[in-house]
Amino acid sequence: MMFDTLKTMLVDELSVNEADIKPDAELVNDLGINSLELADLVLLCEERFGIEISDDDVRSFLTVQDVTDYLDKKAEKN
After folding, report:
1. What is the pLDDT of residue 66?
2. Domain that holds residue 46
3. In a 10 Å sphere around its CB, with 0-12 CB exposed, 13-18 middle and 19+ buried, how is residue 12 labelled?
4. 16-34 pLDDT, tens per residue?
5. Measured between alpha carbons, how far is 1 from 70 in angstroms, rounded to an integer?
6. Within 13 A of 12's CA, how many CA atoms are on the CB side?
7. CATH number reported for the structural domain that contains residue 65 in this entry
8. Rounded CA gap, 23 and 71, in Å?
C-alpha cells in the first residue's frame, strides 16, 4: 500500500511517468528526480504521514523501494 501511495505522489506531484515507477527504479538515474524534486518529495511525505525525515535519512533514498521501506518503518512507529 505504501508503494502505491508513493507512486501516486510521484506521478501527481512530480510528474514522473507512472510506467517508470517500479520498486527497484532509482530516483535520480531512472526517474530523473533532481535534488529540488527530492526535497519536494521529502516535504510531501512529511506532511502526508506526519513524520520528520532527517537529511541523513534522505541520503539513503536511492530507489523507490528505499523510500517505501523507510515510510513503512516510520508508519509502524506512529
Report:
1. 98
2. 2-77
3. exposed
4. 999 999 999 999 999 999 9
5. 13
6. 7
7. 1.10.1200.10
8. 13
